[in-house]
Amino acid sequence: MQKILVVEDEVKVANAVKKGLEENGFEVDVAYDGRMGKSLAASNNYDLVILDLNLPHHNGYELCEVIRRKNNRVPVIMLTALGGVEDKMQAFELGADDYLVKPFDFRELLARIRVFLKRAGSEAPHSTQYKITIADLEIDREKKEVTRGGKKIALTAKEYQLLDFLALHKGKVISKLTIAEKVWDIDFDTGTNVIEVYMNFLRKKIDKDFEQKLLHTKTGMGYYLSEE
Ligand code: CA
Fold first, then answer.
1. 69 C-alpha to center of ligand 1: Å?
2. How much is the mean pLDDT over the chain?
3. pLDDT at 60 > cutoff 70
4. What is the C-alpha to C-alpha distance for residues 81 and 103, in angstroms, rounded to an integer?
5. pTM (2 decimals)?
6. 9 and 115 share a domain?
7. Which terminus of the chain has a smaller tally of CB atoms within 10 A, N or C?
8. Which residues form a coiled coil (predicted)?
């Protein structure tokens, strides 16, 4: 059974989400404040974390950082009453994979959870390639590990999915729209800005310290991964 951590101080919202998820076959732990969320996240392995932004003791941003330090790749969905672009960007920068503005429809939350969990569990059958190598960049698709020049690179779930998608289409220019559809797999209300933000994150981690750049932009067309 897949296990989800819900960190939310509004008891009503927390319990409704817990109930809905349990009805859909998930095992759910609820933390009603940041401290409890932190200790649960530290002592359990969750398949996914739902994080409210405004919480007593530690806010969602702090918690997200803590979770990322412990387990790089667990998908994190942030919940918040704030819907500004800056709030979204901050959430993404701290490693959240998705962002839902309150009040939200439970079905939408469920749909997003399923996208993340389905992808985490069924990535390999899409391709028989288990290792992709581009110059000195190596993607181990079984272990979901990325190294460059032999050095391990820590990526969030979304960063990994984006890199993996570009790597599977090595050398081909992929439009932002295709990336939004295929990598995010949802109606993308945040707009394609977020893809630029993610490309910047990836560049920092994959290319910044290396002379040979692998991530390329074709202006007005999209992005591609190539050793050229
Ligand atoms: Ca709250």
1. 23
2. 86
3. yes
4. 7
5. 0.60
6. yes
7. N
8. none
